[in-house]
Amino acid sequence: MKKQIMKRIFAAVLAAATLMTASIPAAAASVNTNGTPIYYVQRSWDAANKKVVSETKPCTDYELLHSTSSSWYTIGQENETTWYVAKGNITMNGTTLTVRGNVNIILCNDANVKILDGIEVKTGYSLSIYGQEGDNGFLYAKNNDQDAGIGCGPNSGVGDITIHGGKVEAHGGKYAAGIGSGDERQMGSHITIYGGDIQAFGGKYGAGIGSGDETSGDNGYIDIYGGNVFAKGGDEGAGIGGGNEGNGRHITIWGGKIEAIGSSKEAAGIGGGDDGGGGYITINGGEVTAWAFSYGPAIGGDTNCGTITINGGEIYAFGGLGAGIGGAYVENLVKGSITINGGKVYASSTNSTGIGAGAGTSSGGDCDIPITINGGNVTAYGTGGSAGIGAGNAGNLNGQITIAGGYVEASANKGGGAGIGSGAEDSGVFKIGGEVTKKIKITGGTVIASASPKGNAQAIGRGCNGDSAGTELYANAKVTAGSNAGNATVKKDDERLSGLTQYYAKIEPR
Q1: Which of 136, 174, 326, 488 is deepest in the core (most CB within 10 A)?
Q2: What's the CA gap between 498 and 470, in Å, rounded?
Q3: Which residues lie below 8 Å from residue 489, measured CB to CB, with a gap of 6+?
Q4: Comparing 22-26, 235-239, 264-268, 308-312, which segment has the lowest mean pLDDT?
């Protein structure tokens, strides 16, 4: 209620301010008249060769950005494409740089631009930012209200934002994303990064890159093709994806070096904010590191991890009480899917599953979604009674786990979770969890699974004190099993399935 009252007050103040500033013309800019070209780097995606390509181009029709302390500085024109150049030190103190039409900004290598009340890009407009060779031009955009650092505020949706290069740092205001939407505003647009060095910080309840507070639905697209990207959510916001109570949208990573952090509660590094679903997360390449320092998964969402597909790249996912890849702490993972077709994937957690549901206690921990591994090199570590791949502590595995190819190593280091399967049965009064209700299917590839000997769990199957529906194994599989890797022996054909119930098991083609 308090938040809604404050929003009404803010809206009234904003309306009054709009009336007062409506008659103020846009700040004057210096117009280039002599045709002296400014060169910039345009980047694009070469789909055939799966890489970012660069082209240096001249711009001769542009205006120069300049310092100002007025409240609004409007650039661009309705239904027109315009170009602006930033050179040297430029400070817009208390100024909102407002985009109209399709605006392009070139950051020269000596540019040091500080915009201290954000860049506004509303629905229907677009902003593209370019650097020069070397990408040394710097743009800093910070907002102190309910607006994004670069994007929109609480009274409109966000337009398309494209970054080709330069150094860009964006800080969202309260309830808003660093780059993306403001409070309770849908994405509904494209955020595209081809290159440069980007740092984005969400305000309280906002994502680093993505949506602001309380934005439902999965509309909006975030595509990262290259560059160095660091994104950190504010309280309860994802690093890349949703703000508080917001889903992860359509997130696709093609390349680049990306680090994303979800700071608090159930917010993911990449995916949903607190109480938000994961959306649609696809990783095709690049080096991706995702962190969740509290209850959220490094990649995924709360009860709905979203549709997670990994086709390539190097992925490092570090969860806290939530999974490395999957769901959040004390939540049953009931919706979504995880599919790994390729790449190098490392997923771990300090007190939960590597891949699957987050840890449970007297509730939560069930994994009801399909987890499919068709290829790649996958390492998953669970701890605290959670499985390496599967259910969290006190959780049942009700979803289908299928491993059809690749090289997979899964272990539960501490507690009673299975290497692949269910978590440990809750040791309290409830005695819940530990069950595997569907056969685990291993139809190809090399799989190494292990459980802690102190936890009375199986390498592949049930957690401590649980029951398992068993495992389906491909015909020509060779099984080496034992209490640990050092004393494991090759099993005869009629001993292979029972070998999987020991603490250590390795499956590989004969």
Answers
A1: 326
A2: 9
A3: 480, 481, 482
A4: 22-26
Query: At which residue do the structure tokens 């272990």 appear?
Result: 411
Please state, in angstroms and as integers, the Cα–Cα distance from residue 153 to each residue in 53, 123, 156, following that order: 33, 11, 6
Which DSSP category does 185 fall into? -
Strand partners, 401: 371
User: What is the structure's pLDDT at 26?
Assistant: 41
Q: Report the C-alpha gap between 268 and 358 in whole angstroms.
A: 12
Specify the pLDDT at position 188. Answer: 67
Domain ranges of the chain: 29-282, 295-510
pLDDT attached to residue 216: 66
Say if residue 123 is exposed, middle or buried (CB neighbours under 10 Å; 0-12, 13-18, 19+). Answer: middle
Total count of residues recorded for the chain: 510
Do 387 and 412 meet the contact criterion of CB atoms below 8 Å apart?
Answer: yes
Average pLDDT on 375-385 reads 97
CA atoms within 13 A on the CB side of 358: 32
**pLDDT of 328-376, one tens digit each?**
999 999 999 999 999 999 999 999 999 999 999 888 999 999 999 999 9
Contact 322, 358 (CB under 8 A): yes
Q: Do 219 and 189 touch, CB atoms closer than 8 A?
A: no
pLDDT score of 489:
97
pLDDT of residue 426: 80
Q: Give mean pLDDT, residues 398-425.
A: 96
Alpha-carbon span 281 to 283, nearest angstrom: 7
Question: How far apart (Å, rounded) are the C-alpha atoms in residues 366 and 391?
Answer: 5
Kindly provide the residue ranges of all beta strands, DSSP E only, lying in 301-365, ordered along the sequence: 304-310, 314-319, 325-326, 335-340, 344-349, 355-356
Q: For residues 506 and 76, give the distance between their C-alpha atoms in angstroms, rounded to a whole number.
A: 63
The more confidently predicted of residues 455 and 230 is 230
For residues 65 and 89, the answer to whether their CB atoms sit within 8 Å is no
**Token couple for 432:** 């819940």
Secondary structure class of 260 (helix, strand, coil): strand
Measured CA to CA, the distance from residue 198 to residue 182 in angstroms comes to: 19
pLDDT value, residue 415: 86
- Tens-place pLDDT, residues 126-181: 999 999 999 999 999 999 878 999 998 777 789 999 999 999 999 999 999 999 99
431-460 as b/e, with b when 16 or more CB fall inside 10 Å? Answer: ebbbbbeebbbbebbbbbbbbbeebbbbbb
Between strands 150-151 and 389-390, the pairing is unpaired
Record the tokens describing residue 392, joined without a space. 């969290």
What the block records as the tokens of 206 is 């906002």
